[in-house]
Amino acid sequence: MPASSPGRPVDLAAEAAPLDRKTRDALTAAQLYYLQDIGMSEIADELGTSRSSVSRLLSHAREIGLVEIAVRSPLALPRQLEGEIHRLFGIVAHVVPVPDDVNDVDRLERVAVSAARILGTFFDSNMSMGVAWGSTMSAVSRHLVPRGTQNSRIVQLNGAANPRTSGILYSSEILERYGSAYGAQVHQFAVPAFFDDPATKAALWRERSVARVVDMQSSLDIAVFGLGSPFSGVPSHVYIGGYLDRDDFRALSESHVVGDVATVFYREDGSDDGIALNARSSGPDLDTLRRITRRVTVVAGATKLASLRGALAAGIITDLVLDSGTARRLVDSVPA
Question: What is the pTM of this model?
């Protein structure tokens, strides 16, 4: 290999392969133009040629594959992710474009706006919608698009009372927004989120006023819910609102719980067997949820990824509304 002159860089492109003069010049021009952001006039001076010749060299570099130019539209990425999620999980995904540097609160608001609009296309007259309470459902409720329906019902999926509060003001505000938006009857579920004793729950479930709502939950056309997570950037209400004590948190940790839907807990593999707190929960069990034809889940933020993976494994999602960052991480988390 010939030695280089002192102070002069070796022309690796020229020494690596016996390229013809035009290809060498095209490679040099492409490297200067695309990698070093040097203008055509400066490149022409360096190569001892004209600006128009540099333009032809750059065209030649593209034609023979030295340069590949790709346009990545931010509008195309969500559609690609939706296709990947459908292929991997067999569900319908609605991916909301959200920049990665947006904070979790604003991320949730952007996803909630899209979810509210999409939800209106699913609900019509003579239908029943089950709604869980929580930070995500509250955000969605603020952006619902009014749509008049007839003989429709909004049904609360889980109780909201705890030792500190009845939960009625919080849950009823969310439910009333749904009812007002769709002109639907609202059916509240005035029971604790968690009972102290499973036997108390069993007895109350036999009361006609409670059994009426439980029966409605079993015959819903659509259910809409967020996913609770102890790791969320926007704290899930069930984990910070006084619903769980220290022993409850310890039990959930020992059971490897990653999240909940309507206060029913599950692991990342989708299992919920042996999670003691579920026997005291007022939310519909996972089997009941699976029997609902359309189950719309709204998720914002990668901190809910483990909870989302668990819900997907449990088979409780048919339609998923989520931000693009979380969608990308979900797809990337699946082994090739």
Answer: 0.75
